[in-house]
Amino acid sequence: MTERSASPATGIAVGSGIRRSFRRSRPIRAAAHVSIRQRSLWLIVLLATLALLVAASVAIGTRDVSWSDIWLALSGQVESIGQAAVTVRIPRTLLAVLAGAALAVAGTIMQGVTRNPLADPGILGVNMGASLAVVVGVVWFNIETAEAFIWVAIGGAACSAIFVYTIGSLGRGGPTPLKLALAGAATSIALSSLVIAFVLGRNDIAGGLRSWQIGGVGGATFERMEHVLPFLAVGFAISLLSARKLNALALGDDMAAGLGERVAFARTAAAFGAVLLCGATTAICGPIGFVGLVVPHLCRLLIGIDHRWLLPFSAITGACLLLLADILGRIIARPSELDVGIVTAFVGAPFFIWIVRRQRVRDL
């Protein structure tokens, strides 16, 4: 009796599995057929938008400055109030670009790793975990150096991510999108309450910590950013190198393993890159929410779901979004300003509701 005739049921099962795998892989193949011309066109549009927003960020604020002042300030002259304003806005603009790109890439990674359309550093409690770790470090251990802030924030982000994923994995069905979203929301609320409890007991530092907790890019300096750049560089590198692994994970764990991918290692490596980006960004900017939720969905509408394209596009779009939020915050509340954390919350909350209604909390 031949092997083929000995196990017809197995052959039917294998054939059905291949057909199911093919149907699940069709979206990735369809995304791969998005023309290079379309992607290149969108890339040009996004880069042009980013350049315009960078120029607007330098020119717009509580005091508008002329292009001559901008040019003179860029050449090193600080002889007027306008030129001094430009020298302050340049590091702020750079920080907004880096933070927006980092949070958007982290959100894309988290959605790919968990296959959850609601995944986001803020919604899954990662940002709040980093925030609590920093607050505990300041209140109990009196940390002051930038390096200590970054390491503590990354450790808190990692612990929170592991906790949420563990809680969301309990019970039948494993880590479903709904359970992860609920676990992340509950964890964020609990950690936020702990942050308030710790801060209330220290009136001497409460004002600074509360301002930092809102999330913003004001007060940025090149000296502060020097410490965070290596962590962001490593996080971006790991995330971009995980693109092919995320494409394999999108086919399902069984299919990814059948293609020779080490599923556990792929998830851990990609998640580590996202944690680095979240922790480092939170350490210097505070917890900024919804950027990692909004941007990946917008980019998928433009260029498909291939992570080799999605991650770079998310970085550029995230930088544009956070820059735009920072500019709007300066315009809306003149002569004062709104921190970007407030503006992104106004944008992200309705988008979150729309995603829930549209996706019905399905897997990616």
Automatic annotation (TrEMBL):
This is Iron ABC transporter permease. Keywords: Cell membrane, Membrane, Transmembrane, Transmembrane helix, Transport. It comes from the Bacteria. It is a multi-pass membrane protein. Belongs to the binding-protein-dependent transport system permease family. FecCD subfamily. InterPro entries: ABC_BtuC-like, ABC_transptr_permease_BtuC. It holds the Pfam family FecCD. Its main location: membrane. The chain crosses the membrane at residues 41-62, 93-110, 122-143, 149-168, 180-200, 264-289, 309-328, 340-357. It is found in: Cell membrane. The keyword NAD does not apply.
